[in-house]
Amino acid sequence: MKVLVQRALNASVSVAGEVVGAIGHGQMVLVGIERGDTEADADKLADKLLKYRMFSDAEGKMNLNVQQVDGGVLLVSQFTLAAETKKGLRPGFSTAAEPAEGKRLFDYFVEQVRAKHNKVATGQFGADMQVAFTNDGPVTFMLES
């Protein structure tokens, strides 16, 4: 399981021209589910995501997490994070979870994040989504289980 987390000033995701999820200051998070990922992986990453110190303190050092800055979290499923890219010029997706399992684990991940944080929005699993955000920094990290 992989999450690409970006510190954002704002973020939103739209489906068919309608905004389905949006946050102000916080984390824009792309979530990739791979074959073999488990609920334990989701638990571990949900905890790490919320505790990851990527926001600046009064001295400008990354010492604060999203909960400490009362930021939002926008979770967007992104199966292309599981792509095989080492060989060739076209990505392969045999390492990505099957759609039904990916949805189940994505939904579980969302539940775990929501259980620990009250400002959580999501995209729509499997939809053609348009994501808009302003990366603050820029600050971007890949977290993996």
TrEMBL record:
Q: Does the keyword Nuclease apply?
A: no
As for family, the record states: Belongs to the DTD family.
Q: Where in the cell is it found?
A: Cytoplasm
Q: Where is this motif: Gly-cisPro motif, important for rejection of L-amino acids?
A: 137-138
Q: May I have one GO cellular component term?
A: cytoplasm
- UniProt EC number: 3.1.1.96, 3.1.1.-
- What's the name of its gene? dtd
Give the protein's recorded name: D-aminoacyl-tRNA deacylase
In the record's own words, the domains note is: A Gly-cisPro motif from one monomer fits into the active site of the other monomer to allow specific chiral rejection of L-amino acids.
Which CDD domains does the record match to this protein? Dtyr_deacylase
**Domain of life here?**
Bacteria
Q: Which UniProt keywords apply?
A: Cytoplasm, Hydrolase, RNA-binding, tRNA-binding
UniProt-listed PANTHER family: D-AMINOACYL-TRNA DEACYLASE 1, D-TYROSYL-TRNA TYR DEACYLASE
Q: What quaternary arrangement does the UniProt entry report?
A: Homodimer.
Which EC class heads this enzyme's classification?
Answer: hydrolase
GO MF terms, alphabetically ordered:
D-tyrosyl-tRNA(Tyr) deacylase activity; Gly-tRNA(Ala) deacylase activity; Ser(Gly)-tRNA(Ala) hydrolase activity; tRNA binding
Function comment: An aminoacyl-tRNA editing enzyme that deacylates mischarged D-aminoacyl-tRNAs. Also deacylates mischarged glycyl-tRNA(Ala), protecting cells against glycine mischarging by AlaRS. Acts via tRNA-based rather than protein-based catalysis; rejects L-amino acids rather than detecting D-amino acids in the active site. By recycling D-aminoacyl-tRNA to D-amino acids and free tRNA molecules, this enzyme counteracts the toxicity associated with the formation of D-aminoacyl-tRNA entities in vivo and helps enforce protein L-homochirality.
Species in which this protein is naturally found: Maribrevibacterium harenarium
**What catalytic activity is recorded?**
glycyl-tRNA(Ala) + H2O = tRNA(Ala) + glycine + H(+); a D-aminoacyl-tRNA + H2O = a tRNA + a D-alpha-amino acid + H(+)
Q: Could you provide one GO biological process annotation from this protein's UniProt record? A: D-amino acid catabolic process
Q: Does the keyword 4Fe-4S apply?
A: no
Upper lineage:
Bacteria, Pseudomonadati, Pseudomonadota, Gammaproteobacteria, Oceanospirillales
